[in-house]
Amino acid sequence: MSHLSGKRVLLGVTGGIAAYKSAILIRYLREAGADVHVVMTASARAFIGTLTLQALSGHPVHEDLMDPAQEAAMGHIQLARWADLVLVAPATANFMARLAHGLADDLLSALCLATTAPIALAPAMNREMWRNPVTQQNKALLESRGMLFWGPGEGAQACGESGPGRLLEAEQLARRVQDWFAPGDLRGVGVLLTAGPTREPLDPVRFLGNRSSGKMGYALATALAEAGAEVCLVSGPVSLDCPAGISRVMVETAMEMYDAVMERVVDCALFVAAAAVADYRPASVSAQKLKKKEHEVEISLVPNPDILAEVAALPHPPFTVGFAAETERLEEYAETKRRAKGIDMIAANLVDAPEGGFERDENALTLLWEGGHERFPLAPKSLLAPQLAARIAEHFHAKVTAEDS
User: Fold this and answer.
1) Is 159 noted as a catalytic residue in this protein?
2) Is this prediction's pTM over 0.85?
3) In this predicted structure, what is the pLDDT of residue 70?
4) CB 23 within 8 A of CB 53
5) Is 112 a member of any domain?
6) Which of 141, 224, 274, 292 is the most buried (most CB within 10 A)?
7) What gap in Å lies between CA 216 and CA 228, rounded to an integer?
8) Total structural domains in the chain?
9) Cα dihedral angle (368, 371, 375, 376), rounded to 10 degrees?
10) What CATH code is carried by the domain that includes residue 399?
11) Active-site hit among 159, 232, 242, 268
């Protein structure tokens, strides 16, 4: 289950070119399980159509404070009480100023005054408008009242300038919402996670490798840390920064990853093997670059240790989660692998399908465990990871509870 399952998000849209991102944001929030109602200001309608946001949210869009049909039942109060979170994205400089000074002459500002739910503002404006001392004073005043600020980002702007003031991308905002509702299911739990590929050298220049980018493993490490876990990441060679709050051990070969894992596994309660570890390595490594030959060349390979299976076979193993990259018969092969290795759960994907996860930012997964499975449809890995982390946490705690009873 996602942290957003059943959560009620009231999305305010104000008048700025960045309003188009609100449509994408609604889709991400609903895919994660949230119920989304939209409130638009009059100026927002100049940038994005009401019907678009209505179709995406699945609810009529709320626009007018003085709508007789709504206000007969005090509609703005009902909306204010309904929300678990109010997110205004984009939030213009004008809206920030009006909110800072308590104006309530439209529906969105009125319900912001009436709600007891947390309010998050995602600013979007020209860089000089953002830097203006008045805007910064309004920001400080709103923050002093407990309002959250998500962004702005920096980069190219619609006006042709570049700098701070961009609305965060829809994916980033959806992630902020996920993080806000994250319950900390794994607080204090030691997690050891592997990610990325391994490289098995043939000579000083060449190696046997695979196409894993490490993005899914890194996203999952981040999600587990945000759920409260103490994460140690053993990573193969990737071009990704170490996530904040996570300790990382960099390795290159399967044997180096094996040594790093076996050295640290006694300190963890949960082990996640997201790395794409080479099954074989060359029997010998040339000290010099191998020269091209006119005839066929045979390379003798020897098996690498099965890290996941060896961890699962320990006398007192941690809760173990594996990954399976398949090209056919996904659930059959993944379940066979889960049983053969004696692990608790396995996340599998079809790497050659359109939704395959190698070398891209999106993924689709099927998670299997004894007696059950769950499918996660194609989504950005940064949004998929918290859902996967929540399900892992649920089964981890269920097993710990069963063993303690």
Assistant:
1) yes
2) no
3) 52
4) yes
5) yes
6) 224
7) 19
8) 2
9) -60
10) 3.40.50.10300
11) 159
